[in-house]
Design a protein that fits this description.
The structure is a homodimer of 401-residue chains. Chain A is α/β, with parallel strands linked by helices. Chain A folds into 2 domains: 4-84 and 234-392, Alkaline Phosphatase, subunit A; 91-229, Alpha-Beta Plaits. Chain A has 14 helices and 13 strands. In chain A, the strands form 2 sheets. An 8-stranded mixed β-sheet of chain A has the order 9-8-10-1-11-12-2-13, with helices on both faces. In chain A, strands 3, 4, 5, 6 and 7 form a 5-stranded antiparallel β-sheet that branches. In chain A, strand 3 and strand 4 (121-123) form a beta hairpin. In chain A, helix 3 (45-53) crosses helix 12 (305-324) and helix 5 (89-96) packs across helix 9 (252-260). The longest helix of chain A is centred in the last third of the chain and has 20 residues, at 305-324. Chain A starts with a helix and ends in a 9-residue tail after the last helix. The A-B interface holds A 29-30, 37, 58, 62-73, 82-83, 86-87, 89, 92, 342, 345-349, 369-370, 373-374, 378-379 and B 1-3, 6, 10, 358, 360, 362-363, 374, 376-378, 380, 384, 387-392, 396-401.
Amino acid sequence: MVPLALIQNLSEQTPSKILFLVLDGLGGMPHPEVGKSELEMARIPNLDRFAGLSICGATDPIAPGITPGSGPSHLALFGYNPIKYDIGRGVLSALGIDFPIESNDVCFRANFATVDKRGDISDRRAGRLATEVNRELCALLRHIHLPEVEVFVETESGHRALVVFRGEGLSDYVTDTDPQRAGVPPLAAEPTHEDAAPMAQIVNGFLSEAALVLQGQDPANALLLRGAAGLPAIPTMPQIYKLTPGAIATYPMYRGLAKLVGMEVLETGDTIWDEFETLQQDWDDYDFFYFHVKATDTAGEDGDFNKKVQVLEEIDSLIPALLRLQPDVFVITGDHSSPSALSGHSWHPVPFALYSNTCISDSVSEFTERTLVQGSLGRFPAQDAMQLAMGHAQKLAKYGA
Amino acid sequence: MVPLALIQNLSEQTPSKILFLVLDGLGGMPHPEVGKSELEMARIPNLDRFAGLSICGATDPIAPGITPGSGPSHLALFGYNPIKYDIGRGVLSALGIDFPIESNDVCFRANFATVDKRGDISDRRAGRLATEVNRELCALLRHIHLPEVEVFVETESGHRALVVFRGEGLSDYVTDTDPQRAGVPPLAAEPTHEDAAPMAQIVNGFLSEAALVLQGQDPANALLLRGAAGLPAIPTMPQIYKLTPGAIATYPMYRGLAKLVGMEVLETGDTIWDEFETLQQDWDDYDFFYFHVKATDTAGEDGDFNKKVQVLEEIDSLIPALLRLQPDVFVITGDHSSPSALSGHSWHPVPFALYSNTCISDSVSEFTERTLVQGSLGRFPAQDAMQLAMGHAQKLAKYGA
């Protein structure tokens, strides 16, 4: 893989525009009853035509066989090494609820849990608490005040919450207090670096107070913390690619990720047509657009084959409008696969097609898992997608004389 | 390539079973007279059908253009970086004759050689000595006794032998005494690390004694040592993949390699049907099987095109029985290519097919060098095969949230 520093050296600002249409969880699998995947079943003439004009392939977001979470799979798509640039669990939780993280914050993913009389954990998820109860408990926990450190306690959903520490001299080099199993007591946070001893004390001090606040609550009488993380030191897309990137996404986590890599996050509505409206309106102001569609993944994760087919057909109807904007480079792909047959993310390679008037089109004429991978790109690392787009947009200078 | 530490973090023990059928030296080349490779000539309807159900490709064991030995090519197939995990020549010799290496042993490959009156080497292989004479000489050399160090001298075949030093404070940081050419005297062993000075003395002391023992022998009047090596520090497959792996192989070197990576080596007979019997019998006790077939390589190395075709047809008849065991993931590949047209190992990519009910099958319908590489895996590093199998067996947790 080429180092980002080299890409940064070669990148040039030009008027050409790149559009990444990222269909979350795009890749599917044959449905056992019909023997066809969602893409093979869907009527998607515009996507098929698009494949015919494009260079086609299938990406490995992380590496063959590895199922990615949305964080690393998006980083790969934006050209970052998803193993080197590891976004901590706490930060993903914060991004997921649009929490405005500041540069020295330390974020934790928190679970409301149940402990028995002896202090052992009997349920790590407090009976999968109702979100409403979670909100009430977070409000109580906000009364905790620590000397010289601000603490934010925010509801995610169900038993899931976010705890953020803000102040001077904090550190994310502390261990989880969640032992990840029942029958044992919660752990104390321990420093994993000598400088983090004060931070471990702060965390344990907060948890002692929280135990008092939650005492007598049923079932959520304990709080478990894991995934301590601050904002990663990550070069931004404007720095690397000299782009002015805009992000259009309906879900907080994707907006948060986009912000993390230096995109401007554009206000938009809930449907793909709302998102298109935003794209059209802001078309002149950016030279890179990340256009995220969540519905493909939701249908896949729900195990709803027919719904995923329907969502794909709806997206198909959007393609002509996107083409009319005449992007110089137009990529249609996903961040990972989410076959409805598996009801979740999977390791399968992700359909990919790149259209540009500088591409030598393949002889692929259908937009499916089986056909796209036969294109000239074959199976390739997602991390290459961004530099391929930059090349076709003629935004990369010659390497060497 | 993904670090093994990451794979180790993601690996989970599950009931699913993986079968690797490794046909040694599988890949061939068109025979100049018929214009077809061994696989193209063979009638292998079961393998063809298998390809049709699988994801297909061709692996590079080390890297494009590089011809591998069996040691590194097998390591790659088991997911190890074959350049990082270098198994020394001495250890390969020991594995090859089933010598029970202990953790601090230092092994050397030895050549019986001929030196002239001036002490210069006239033949590095002593006229390719008969194995029987080799055995007699090894018996003589076993009379040498060194203070505080045990020495084992074992016949391989022809002029080839194994010398193993066992004791405290030994080191493999010593140079070869085999100058790799005639017309010069044997070299003295030199330490390549300051701690290895005593070891060099031990080796040179042994060789002085050996020279006395072999004095007057004709033609084998000298011993040359090379490839000093101890057991490599290699994480085992149970450690990395949390598998309980069983190995079925008829040749000592493959059994030795399997043991080195933490497999349990199962007792078996000489034919592929004996091996199948073992597989069937031990099916319930392991979740990964390495099933090695040597005959393909032997035919290739012998330059016997027709024999290799015949062996492939015999293996084909085994496939239905293997499928009836219903492995969750079934890989058919080789460790390297051994075209009979070249009478030896080659750098050609190795036919590969992976079947699982989680795979999106390719449109490949013949099991040959030319057709498999057109599958969705294309040409890829053998080192990815294991994690691909782990993914399809649903034994890898999601990476990142």
